[in-house]
Design a protein that fits this description.
Elements lengths: L11 H17 L4 H12 L5 E10 L4 E6 L13 E4 L5 H8 L3 E3 L2 H7 L1 H9 L4 E9 L2 E10 L7 H37 L11 E8 L8 E9 L5 E11 H21 L3 H14 L7 E8 L5 E7 L5 E2 L7 E2 L4 E2 L12 E4 L6 E4 L11 H14 L7 H11 L9 E8 L6 E7 L5 H15 L4 H22 L3 E7 L3 E8 L15 H4 L2 H8 L2 E7 L2 E9 H4 L1
Parallel strand pairs: 11-14
Antiparallel strand pairs: 1-2, 1-6, 2-3, 4-5, 5-6, 7-17, 8-9, 9-10, 10-11, 11-15, 12-13, 12-16, 16-17, 18-19, 19-20, 20-22, 21-22
Helix pairs in contact: 1-2, 1-6, 2-6, 4-5, 6-7, 7-8, 11-12, 12-14
């Protein structure tokens, strides 16, 4: 056995000291509660005679504990499976957390006397003695540590001192991890709450967006995007990046976005609006605060885009049968320097041609500079079939193709395409937050597609997918579900939007499609040409596409 047992020749006390040093060094790199659990449980199992270990965090004023054991299926390199246990339960761990005092059970006979309801199961697991230690610092118990031994233990003063020192190291690491988790969650929720409620459905325009906060170990940044329809039919589009991370960056981002909306309602001219935003950012009094923005106004006829850039990368566009390229427009200084003016450019919007606004986090990482990242982005878009370049699918596919492990920056995209002059059918309906939603949605989609002359096989496939997504939305968000269908000559796009924030269907390395609705999303992935999810302040939109030609 490794760890303390392997160090017996140099003395038990010296061996324990070395073990504590190793634990301290390993916990120094632990950032999240999952990290602390992996290190703690692995280290505990290296201690002589410990057969199993468990770690708990306390929530709800101690009424509920989140618990993970050292079982093989509970702790893996990619996931930690926590479960809930009652904080008032009559078990050693809950008692230790509840009373903030350690609980020692030196033998199986003692366990049977004090906790008779758990003695048989613990004996079957090979437990002969137990120690439950509160994780307490500054009179605040943040959790508990459970250690099960394979033999009787008297828990003399020396052993109790060693276990207390072990628990003290875990306590400090867990406090840091829980604080990090709260700060990150607060920042991310704040940032998402300041994002647009959803991408609006607008005549003559197809739009899609994607946002993903920075990687593990960093706080969220100040990326943002916005779409603002104006009363005269024009549409304001913007994507920006506030320098910095965490709550301060999110607050500045919210101020800039709110001011942009207000200024756009007064006069949406790009050059003038950026000048006003520059004055605002300068007046905030945040030292060395820099904000970059790509800001544009689409005309009511969906034929032109008036654009101005403040320190932000130029949008990329991908005409049919041509190589994707960056717009050749002037890039002015970032906001906050008082270094304007900003030049305004007018760009044509050919129908069926996507334009992509993006943050530098999409193309620039620690291992790839900006120019190389843009070349990679252009290459990925160029390899996509033109029919795969519609805005929603473009954002979803690029998020997968451009994902890298050496990036800790936010990734934000906003894609748009003029559909003026193209054959397009659209229908939308909202369904109740009860079991009737799924059959009602199936019938509505069937009626829409039949009226549009869609092939019967495609109708049946669309109904299956809609049924799964509407059921998922209602069950996991507890809100109404809106279904929108859009049909052109090549594809059928169906969107299912809920109004909650608990049923977020994700598609990333850390989230299996089955963790939200069982086989539902796996079925959608198998039947559809493409699918993905968009997250916003007021809920989640999951969409899928079906090829019309393939079903004919």
């Amino acid at each position: 056995m490794s760890g303390t047992a392997g160090l017996q020749p140099i003395g038990e006390a010296a061996g324990r000291l070395v073990h504590l040093r190793r634990l301290t060094a390993a916990l120094a790199d632990a950032i999240t509660p999952d990290d602390v659990a992996r290190v703690t449980l692995s280290s505990a199992l290296e201690v002589d005679d410990i057969a199993r270990a468990g770690l708990a965090t306390s929530g709800g004023a101690g009424r509920e504990l989140s618990f993970v054991a050292s079982d093989d299926d509970a702790v893996t390199p990619t996931a930690v499976r926590w479960c809930r246990i009652e904080g008032l339960a009559d078990v050693p761990l809950a008692e230790a957390v509840r009373t903030s005092r350690p609980v020692y059970v030196p033998s199986l006979a003692d366990l049977a006397e004090r906790y008779p309801h758990m003695a048989e199961r613990q004996a079957a697991l090979g437990t002969r003695s137990m120690a439950a230690l509160p994780l307490t610092a500054a009179q605040n118990t943040v959790g508990g540590l459970l250690l099960s031994f394979g033999g009787d233990h008297p828990f003399d003063a020396n052993e109790q001192a060693f276990l207390a020192a072990f628990a003290a190291q875990v306590t400090q690491a867990l406090r840091r991890a829980l604080a990090f988790q709260v700060q990150r969650t607060t920042s991310e929720l704040l940032q998402r709450s300041l994002m647009p409620d959803s991408i609006p459905e607008l005549d003559g325009l197809s739009m899609g967006a994607y946002y993903e906060p920075g990687g593990s170990g960093v706080d969220v940044g100040g990326d943002w995007y916005d779409v603002l329809p104006l009363a005269d039919g024009r549409v304001v589009v913007a994507l920006g990046d506030v320098m910095g991370k965490g709550v301060p960056a999110a607050i500045v981002m919210g101020q800039v976005r709110a001011a942009m909306r207000a200024y756009a309602l007064i006069d949406c001219s790009p050059a003038l609006l950026l000048s006003r935003l520059d004055t605002l950012v300068t007046s905030l009094g945040v030292p060395e605060q820099i904000v970059t923005v790509a800001y544009g106004v689409i005309d009511a006829e969906r034929r032109q885009l008036r654009l101005a850039l403040a320190g932000h990368p130029p949008p990329l566009f991908a005409p049919p049968a041509q190589e994707p390229r960056l717009l050749d427009v002037a890039v002015g200084p970032p906001l906050g320097l008082g270094a304007g003016p900003w030049r305004e450019s007018t760009v044509d919007l050919p129908p069926d041609t996507p334009f992509l606004f993006y943050s530098d986090g999409l193309v620039e990482t620690r291992g790839i500079d900006f120019d190389a990242g843009v070349r990679l982005l252009r290459g990925h878009i160029g390899e996509l079939e033109h029919r795969r370049r519609n805005p929603r699918e473009l954002c979803a596919r690029l998020a997968e193709l451009m994902r890298r492990t050496d990036s800790d920056d936010d990734v934000t995209m906003l894609a748009l395409m003029s559909t003026e002059g193209l054959t397009l059918h659209t229908a939308s309906e909202e369904f109740p937050a009860d079991p009737s939603a799924s059959p009602l949605a199936r019938r509505a989609v069937a009626a829409w597609l039949a009226a549009w002359g869609v092939d019967e096989a495609l109708v049946e496939t669309a109904q299956l997918c809609v049924s799964e997504l509407v059921t998922n939305a209602v069950i996991h968000s507890g809100t109404t579900a809106r279904v929108t269908a859009r049909l052109d000559d090549e594809r059928l796009l169906v969107l299912v939007q809920d109004r909650g924030n608990r049923g977020a269907a994700r598609r990333s390395d850390e989230h299996d499609p089955t963790d939200i609705s069982g086989r539902g999303l796996m079925l959608v992935e198998a039947l559809s040409t493409a699918w993905s999810a968009e997250h916003s302040a007021d809920g989640t939109t999951v969409w899928f596409e079906l090829d019309v030609a393939a079903a004919s």
